[in-house]
Amino acid sequence: MSDTILKATNISKIYGSHRALNKVSLKIKRGMIYGLIGANGAGKSTFMRTVMGLISTDEGALELFGQSGVKELQQARRKMGQSIETPALYPNLSARENLQVQAANGGVSEREINYLLQLMNLSDTGKKKAKNFSLGMRQRLAIASTLITNPEFLILDEPTNGLDPSGIVEMRSIIQRLVTERGITVLLSSHLLDELSQVATHYGILHDGELISEFSKEELAGKTRQYMELETADVQQAIVVLDQLNVKDYEVINGTEIYIYEQLDNVADINHALVLANVKVSRIGTTRQKLEDYFLQLTGGGEHA
Ligand SMILES: Nc1ncnc2c1ncn2[C@@H]1O[C@H](COP(=O)(O)OP(=O)(O)OP(=O)(O)O)[C@@H](O)[C@H]1O
Known about the structure:
The protein has eleven helices and 13 strands. By secondary structure, the chain is an alpha/beta fold. α3 (95-103) crosses α4. It is elongated, with a radius of gyration of 24 Å. It starts with a strand and ends in a 6-residue tail after the last helix. Bound molecules: adenosine-5'-triphosphate. This is ABC transporter ATP-binding protein. One of its GO terms (molecular function) is ATP binding.
């Protein structure tokens, strides 16, 4: 059994003169939850479509479950589920009836349908018709129907998109259960790093069709730096004091704020030195860089990129 579920090597997709994907290489191993993060138009859906074989690639090679021939890839895709092009939900049927219809050809038991309804928090929707579902419920039902074929590898395109904060939390915990209870490997996308920060084990940042950065959950925690935030109307004098204290790793964010990346245990001493030098400090304390700021920094969209 291959440990590598997906290996993409230099995948490109070209529309006219536009490279929607430019030499994207990445590897997803069994058990990973891989979050593909990118702004609208970055190429997330295009990449997912090439993996599913819904569109062809112009350059590069794909390997799924260790297989790479055209026929072998088609066979490997039978072990996959996706929410990029989900089977249409039947608006006049309930959640259970929708799954029963999807299951009709596959010999899927009522017990399995019960499990999927429960897994997706849809058990108590009773006779309610899909057309009356909230966006979150519809999204969960769509995922449930992709699980009918018992996939080993699931591709979810923006599963948290449009959900309210509690819907996002619910979706994350469902995805985690898929991995722990069913051993499914997941590739999912979002335009917000923060939305996947609690769920993905690995991340790839897609920007203008290029994979510009990859990191693990642990690396992400390390990369979003902790820093000391200092607010004062007297930035010039504050910098003189910082220099005297041998603080070198800092940046002036705007006319009144300084971010200091070292001596984080010395907040009190730094504050004391500033006060002694007659620098009026309106705020000082440590904080952690926000994930979206980190994302903007990577993609060149931040003010201090
Ligand atoms: N069929 C197509 N023909 C021409 N251009 C396309 C086609 N499909 C996608 N594109 C272009 O390729 C780029 C990547 O699109 P893609 O849908 O993969 O982005 P995305 O990261 O999924 O963004 P979104 O979140 O908006 O779906 C965009 O510039 C898009 O306009």
